[in-house]
Amino acid sequence: MEEVEVVVAHSERVTLRVGDVFLKVDADQARLDVEAEAVALAPVPTPEVLWRKPSVLAIAALRGRRLGRLGEPSAASPAAWAAAGAAIRRLHEAPLPPWTGRRRRDPGELAAELDGECELLVANGILPAGLVARNREIAEAAIRPWTPAFIHGDLQISHVFVDGDEVTGILDWSEAGRGDALFDLATFTLGHERHLGDVLAGYGTDVDLDVLRAWWSVRSLLGVRWLVEHGFDAFAPGCEVDVLRSRM
Question: What are the Aminoglycoside phosphotransferase domain coordinates in residue numbering (predicted)?
Fold first, then answer.
């Protein structure tokens, strides 16, 4: 008899695995709609959508294994990282999706959100003021006009599956839309800076490294409090707080 595995669970969504089927239960139907549409449009390997019902999306398991996880060394080869970079480039060069997406922030909105979050991190005693101030300074480079691209929006390395040196699929498209391509690249390499060269070799075009690194600070500053409040450990070795400390 198949067992039900809880893959991830918090107040916004739950992902369950039953055999070779994943069930995503989301309080926001719009996120599931975006995911199904993005999977259909993205010019990269994606999981098969088996069926959709209100609040639930069923998808098939992917072949291979995760490229890695935040906070853990990746056993994947440099060629696998480069293949992932090439897949990301294909996505970013694809026609823009018809919806805007959650990651489309103009510079003023991003600056205001970041400043507000930095104040809360210090006021609530989550992070020391010096660490926050230094990373807010670095983050400034990401606050600039950018050309919209088709982005995944939450391109953690755990969402990319490989078999040997081949990318077999990319998961979790609920944040997809129009956004800054460097946000995707920064999310993908967060906490895995040693693989950045392999990723960019596969990506195959010049990238502003100061902006990419600025997005590391942005993503970590904006994520720490949410992670703590939802029961995740942003202070674990190699995770978001370590990323912020590495910028000091």
Answer: 40-207
E runs forming strands in 38-94 = 49-53, 56-60, 65-66
Q: How far is 150 from 109, CA to CA, in rounded Å?
A: 20
Residue 38 pLDDT level (bands cut at 50, 70, 90)? very high
Rounded-to-integer distance, Cα 52 and Cα 59, Å: 9
Residue entry with tokens 């996120």: 31
Q: Which residues contact 175 (CB under 8 A, 6 or more apart)?
A: 31, 34, 101, 102, 103, 152, 153, 154
HSE-up (13 A, CA, CB side) for residue 46 = 22
Which amino acid is it at 220?
S
**CB atoms closer than 10 angstroms to residue 166:** 14
Q: How far apart are the first and last CA of the chain?
A: 51
Indicate the CATH number for domain 64-246.
Answer: 3.90.1200.10
Cα–Cα distances (Å) from 169 to 8, 59, 61, 239, in that order, read: 19, 12, 9, 24
**pLDDT, average across residues 18-26:** 92
Tokens, residue 100: 């805007």
Using alpha carbons only, what angle is made at residue 196 by residues 177 and 101, rounded to the nearest 5 degrees?
10
CA angle 113, 114, 118 (to 5 degrees): 120
Q: What is the pLDDT of residues 47-91, one digit of tens each?
A: 999 999 989 999 999 999 999 999 999 999 999 999 999 999 999
**Domain locations in the chain?**
64-246
